[in-house]
Structure formats: C-alpha cells, structure tokens
Write a structure and sequence with these properties.
The protein is an all-beta fold. The chain contains no helices and 17 strands. The strands form 4 sheets. The chain has a 5-stranded parallel β-sheet, with no helix packed on it. The radius of gyration is 15 Å and the shape is globular.
Length: 123
C-alpha cells in the first residue's frame, strides 16, 4: 500500500527537496533547499524549514514553527506551535506523558522534541 503525499499549492518548495510518502505540508509553509523530509510527516500552517534540514519519519510540526538551517529533527518528534529551532543551540526538550499500551497497561512515554526517543517505561 502506498500513501498519498499532499503539498498545498501555496507552499514555497525548492526543487532540491525530498519528501517521503504520506507526508502533508500545509498552506503558507516555506521549504528551502537541500531538505529531506521523511515518511508520514505533518508540517502544519506557516512553517519555515531552512537549508540542509533533515526531518525524520513520523514527525509532527505544529503551526508557525521556524527551523533554521542544518538541523535534524528525530523520528516521532513533535514540535509545538511557534517554536524556533536554531542551529547550534541546545534545542533538546523532553517531556513525559502517560499512554495506554497493549492489554491496557499504562506506560510513561518519553518523547524528545528534536531528537528521537519514543521510549516507554512501565509505570
């Protein structure tokens, strides 16, 4: 099965961008040059991706996020509304939340906003 890749017609998109299947890029977004966007990524309204960025699989970028050049966003990451990720700065932010796993077991899941983690620990 192959998933559709959807890019709003208003998106400014360089010809030197690779976009994985199942990715959605919403209106008002600017994607500059030499960027790799993974599979099943959602880039919401009015975001900017700078040169040489790598956005790994299953990333969600909420509205009005600015990612400067030469930044890697890890698998399963979520970047909240209005966040600015600046090259060379320590952007690593982690948070915990509770989720239900198989068999209704409760887990605390750590997600890393800029580098992948998505690790579960049993509570």
């Amino acid at each position: 099965m192959q998933f559709a890749t959807i890019v709003d017609p208003s998106v400014i998109l360089s010809k030197r961008v690779v976009i994985g299947e199942g990715t959605i890029i919403c209106a008002g977004t600017i994607v500059t040059v030499d960027i790799s966007i993974g599979k099943h990524v959602i880039i919401n309204l009015d975001c900017t991706l700078g040169h040489d960025d790598v956005i790994e699989d299953f990333v969600t970028i909420y509205p009005s996020v600015n990612v400067s050049g030469n930044v890697r966003v890890g698998e399963c990451s979520e970047i909240g509304t209005g966040v600015q990720i600046i090259q060379g700065k320590k952007n690593k932010v982690e948070y915990n939340y509770r989720c239900r796993g198989s068999g209704n077991k409760e887990y605390r899941q750590t997600r890393n906003l800029c580098w992948s983690s998505c690790q579960r620990e049993k509570i």
